[in-house]
Amino acid sequence: MAPTHVLRCCQRGLAWIPVIFIALVVCWSYYAYVVELCLLTIVDTGEKIIYLVVFHLSFIMFVWSYWKTIFTRPANPSKEFCLPKAEKEQYEKEHRPETQQDILRRVASGLPLYTRTGAGAIRYCDRCQVIKPDRCHHCSACDMCVLKMDHHCPWVNNCVGFSNYKFFILFLTYSLIYCLFIAASVLQYFIKFWTLCRRKSAENCPKSDPTESPNAKFHVLFLFFVAAMFCISILSLFTYHLWLVGKNRSTIEAFRAPVFRNGPDKNGFSLGFSKNIAQVFGDQKKYWLLPIFTSQGDGFSFPTRLVTIDPEQQHTECLQPEVLDKGAVDGCVEQASLTSESQNRLLANDYHSEEDHKEIDVLKSGESEAVTISIESES
Q1: Across 47-184, where does the E strand assignment appear?
Q2: What is the value of pTM for the model shown?
Q3: Fewest CB atoms within 10 Å of the CB: 63, 236, 245, 291?
Q4: Taking Cα atoms as reference points, which of 259, 277, 327 lies closest to residue 119?
Q5: pLDDT for 61-109, tens place per residue?
Q6: Neighbouring residues of 160: CB distance < 8 A, sequence distance ≥ 6
Q7: Smallest Cα–Cα separation from 282: which of 136, 152, 133, 169?
Q8: Catalytic pick among 38, 145, 153, 179
Q9: Among this protein's residues, is 9 annotated catalytic?
């Protein structure tokens, strides 16, 4: 037991190395830009002030969002997703998977669940001993179940999930702005020092300008390379996560589609671009760019594209023109296409179907015109 505990402590300590590395690079970039570039290299006072103001604004927002991403604790399933004592004891004593699933179904019947395992079973974490809410996954690095888990990021030494996903997106945004601004503002001095160094190396002549510091040259040259390198690497990650936000998917769901009662659906949680954005950043746009938690929902249940359909009803319904006006047709089509945002529980309803594709046929025949609206869906 003791060696395992020591090993665990060592792993937790080593996990902070990437964060410490990023912190050291950021501290050095601050010194190189503010001291070596702005105070010692740039001569024009107006240029100094503009560069320092913009730099500090991007620096503050970058550090703020990075801090919130690191130190915001991942959200975990609540106690209602734990098995009651009697059911827990019965589950642990039972070795047959069918009987275990029956126990889980009874408990899960009162929970807002839509997704299941690939085999159609209730998603249960034996490690944390909880029924997993929708979009919840177990993180082996953090050793806990994380609500709406996206991935475990070693650069923040934390799980990115429901509680800090907005902070992570803002961290990528402001780090990209930070690197872009440094690279753009340093570029002219990088070119100046680079050509000057090459000319002097070719001519093998000593330094002619006493104001030119070799130390400043090194910091400015290296600062541009580092900023450009991080900018390229962050840009691809930033673009990918913006695409995920627009599709309302996590990184896990992008590689493995969530499984609903009627099968896997990679767009099962997508509600449209604007609603997908609002689910991460919130309804109030004035808070979107601030590392303040404004995400919608509680992390336990999410609106889905599932539409409840009564199996007793026919899929094709004919309405006569005298009782069907244009508003009724539009209402039927809109009702069929709207996503279900109510928290209908998967296990409490017998029939849910996924609106994979809709086909509307309008047929007109002579004097007795009839409008037929058919909705095809997977059973």
Answers
A1: 124-125, 130-131, 137-139, 144-146, 151-153, 158-160
A2: 0.78
A3: 236
A4: 259
A5: 999 999 999 999 999 999 999 999 999 999 999 889 999 999 999 999 9
A6: 69, 149, 150, 151, 152, 153, 168
A7: 169
A8: 153
A9: no
